[in-house]
Amino acid sequence: MKRRSGFIVMSRLVGLVKPLVGFMILAILMGLVGHLCATFITIFGGYAVLEILGLDTPFSLAGIFVCVILFAVLRAGLRYGEQACNHFIAFKLLALIRDKVFRALRKLCPAKLDGRDKGDLISVITSDIELLEVFYAHTISPAAIAFLFTIILCLFIGSFHWTLGLLALGAYLVVGIVIPLIVSKLSGDTGMKFRTDSGELSGFVLDSMRGLSETIQYNEGSKRLGMMNEHTDKLAKTEEKMKRNAGLNSAVTNTVILLCDLAMLLCSSSLYKQGQVDFVGVLIPTIALFSSFGPVVALAGLGSTLQNTFAAGNRVLDILDETPATEEISGQPDISFSGAKAENVTFSYGHSHGDEIILKDISADFPEHRIIGITGRSGSGKSTLLKLLMRFWNTDQGKITVSGTDINSVNTANLRDMESFVTQETHLFHDSIRNNLRIAKLDATDEEIETACKKASVHDFIMTLPNGYDTPVGELGDTLSGGERQRLGLARTFLHDAPFVLMDEPTSNLDSLNEAVILRSLKEEQEDKTIVLVSHRQSTMRIADTVYSVEQGRMS
Predict the structure, then answer these.
(1) CB of 455 within 8 A of CB of 518?
(2) What is the mean pLDDT of the chain?
(3) Could you report the per-residue pLDDT of 272-295, keeping only the tens digit for each?
(4) Residue 255 to residue 267: CA distance in whole angstroms
């Protein structure tokens, strides 16, 4: 995880506001005028007291009451308008950030997400992004409002005497800047630790839910519960520290405000004794300062929460700044499939896998209208070769070509249209069977879907279900058996109808009868397709025209 300073995170997050800068300016203006109305309600109350005492004031008593009522009504409307604008900006930007994050995840997938804690990723794209609402709705405009408000109030208080104006400026700076910086410094990396611990807990809970049947089977419930309690206690301790810092921040802020008010009273009283201000110059500046800490107190409260917000922003920026293992290619002329080749390919997964060489100087030919089999022991690199043909990773040495063109010069969308990839595990979404199949071809007709399912030997099974193709599958397809999920994955491949089909153990979960039906369908598809079969089964290899054997990263 890359560590960025709070200033860098804030500047990056602020930069996203550009499309909504008009709404932000409106929110700042309404907030500024609203806070001035609230403060001058109290100030005009001071003038009313002076008027009752018979002292000279620039306002009549009736005029003061009219202004106070007007300020109160304006304050209510402006406060509502400010919050409406801020939350409109926040939710629009959160939608924008989510879109950016999902686009980034698509580019990172699958190479950079392989082995990544999915629970932690869920935490980033849900709670971390949601936490940025605090920044956009309650940080940017309050900071600008506090800055402008401070200037106006310092000028107003300073109009009675410049010393009082400087004292007010010092009070605002201490409450709005010095205290938040000190509290933020004391908080250290507590915010980042909280977000990390929260992500770990999410990952553990997700893992526990997925493995619930195994936990029950082996009577590991108490152990798993104990581990969950450890994660929860760890998170609670971090949160307790954050709450303690927030309480300290609030206590120090209120104490400093009281001391500043007393300082203003003492200073103005001293000037009164020296004849430099009259009684109005004592009462009004003191009341003005006393009633005007609202905007800077809002900043002071951020001292204990910004660390958490910046930590969330940092985790989101990590995803946005992550470099994909393979860049998306566009702008090249589209090509049609006419065979593929791997030429002297060497590959390792890099530091995350100890730099172990998976494939070493291998070459293979995948001509049109042929079925190519690949066998070998587990871990020999068979599945890795398919991923290289999909360009999920780049080769370290050698090259892979499609239709005589280096795969690194083929448009990504064009390559995906030419290829179908059947993995060992078929992922099904929490949706109907029809919609799960239609992922392979969004405009597929019901007839095309049924034809694909018949080829995958799954149509008859689907028709036995209560709602046929409209039957919903459970989360991750857990209402179906492994073989049923695998056949649905094969149906997707037949529906996609790509000319280059890559299959990783496509019949591993099937019985011999269903395997025979599917292999017959594949043999029939050979007329207009190139099919690459990775399998341990000799029965699967019987339909292959050519069989390569991969052993210890080498091909024969």
Answers:
(1) yes
(2) 84
(3) 999 999 999 999 999 999 999 988
(4) 18
**Going by C-beta distance under 8 Å and a sequence separation of 6 or more, which residues neighbour residue 163?**
267, 271
DSSP per-residue codes, 497-543: T-SEEEEESTTTT--HHHHHHHHHHHHHHGGG-EEEEE-S-HHHHTT
User: Which pLDDT score, from 0 to 100, does residue 149 have?
Assistant: 94
CA–CA dist 243, 256 (Å, integer): 20
Instruction: Kindly give, in sequence order, each residue whose CB lies less than 8 Å from that of residue 400, ignoring residues fewer than 6 positions away.
Output: 340, 341, 342, 343, 345, 388, 389, 391, 406, 407
* Residue 374 β-bridge partners: 534, 548
Structure tokens at 189: 């990396």
Residue with tokens 């917000």: 309
Whether residue 478 is predicted with pLDDT greater than 70 in this model: the reply is no
User: Helices 306-321 and 190-210 meet at what angle, rounded to 10?
Assistant: 60
326-363: pLDDT as tens digits? 888 889 999 999 999 999 999 988 644 446 788 888 99
Query: DSSP code of 326?
Result: S
Q: How far apart are CA 83 and CA 88, in angstroms?
A: 8
Query: What is residue 128's DSSP assignment?
Result: I
Residue 2 pLDDT greater than 70, yes or no: no
pTM recorded for the entire structure: 0.68
Is residue 505's pLDDT more than 90? no
Per-residue pLDDT tens over the stretch 44-86: 998 898 888 888 878 888 888 999 999 999 999 998 998 888 8
Cα 100 to chain centroid distance, Å, stands at 8
The CA distances from residue 52 to 56, 160, 170, 201, 269, in Å, are: 10, 21, 32, 63, 21
Could you tell me which residues are beta bridge partners of residue 406? 401
Q: Are 288 and 32 in contact (CB under 8 A)?
A: no
DSSP 480-507: S-HHHHHHHHHHHHHHHT-SEEEEESTT
- Find the helix packing angle between 179-187 and 306-321, rounded to 10°: 60
Residue 254, classified by CB atoms within 10 Å of its CB into exposed (0-12), middle (13-18) or buried (19+), is middle
- CA nearest to 423, candidates 366, 361, 508, 365: 508
C-alpha distances in Å from residue 172, one per residue of 39, 46, 155, 168, 524: 14, 21, 13, 6, 80
Element holding 282 (H helix, E strand) = helix 280-290
3-state secondary structure of 341: strand
